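Supplementary Note 3. Input sequence used for the single-chain structure prediction.
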Amino acid sequence: MASTLRNCTLVIALCSAAIFPGSGPVRADHATVRNYRPFTTELYTKDKKLARIALRRFIGKGKEYYLAVNPDTLESELAPVGKYLFLKRSLGEMREEHGNRAYFKALAFSERNSRNLQNAGITHISGHGAAVYLTADLCPTRRPLDRALFMRIMNEYGNYHKPVPVALSITGRWMEKHSADLRWLIDLEKNKIISIVWINHTYTHLYKKNLPLSKNFLLNKTAGIDEEILHNEIAMIESGLIPSVFFRFPGLISNREAFLKITGLGLIPVGSDAWLGKNQWPKQGSIILVHANNQELVGMKRLAGLINAKQKAIAAGEWMLRDIRAGIVEYMKMY
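The predicted structure, written as discrete structure tokens, is reproduced below.
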């Protein structure tokens, strides 16, 4: 990297809002997002240390932002253009240059499991014996969120550890119909009851009942993968969310071509080895999948029963829910 910096010029990105107070992530709450596009560049601190990898660029509230990821922690940020120095690079160039950083390791690791029709990507996270990783899908539905059951689960675990880490795979169609439920979830996070990683689950979650899996969901010939991904990210940002670098295929259905389009957009696909609604029970390191959209209540009820049964182990630190980002960062140290 030292030689790269000697041979390339780092430029301060200038815009009408080049100076921003504070150093934390910026939320573009309810901003109308314009000119949203893939845009990859390395972002550096003033002392020329790599700080973030930008994946998108857009205009919100009249200011320019990057959607960027910390390559060591996998945390996402909406970074105002001008906050960091930048060096324009393609994603491929950055993967080659920084392949030892957790983010790029995770991209490459997910691609090892990219040929399966069902459940491709990262499905299990080794490295921390007591941990499992809770993911909950919010697929399109007319049904409201079952807040009582959701809170029962969060409170049972939250009696011992708060905030409760959960990764929510969200769709644009769900956000359209459930703005009050979305705001309720955001308020839970603001009150430190839960800690949410927002996973892109496409905008429409396209599904045709009579089509075979090999031609369904994102494999449907009418599906536009770029549009599904970017449209959903726009909807997330306009709803006050910060999209993570994770992606979940609708129905957990994909093929190699679709998979590489997702990683080509800088997203890390995650599946599950413990879909509770299908009677798959978690073990150490499992990525649990439930549907929090009131469409598969059996999974949520099994989760509630599981947490209740694990009370002593939770209290003793022998069974825990963990942030999926921290788990993958630790897991990548093994590779």
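Confidence is low (pLDDT under 50) at residues 1-28. DSSP finds eleven helices and 14 strands in the chain.
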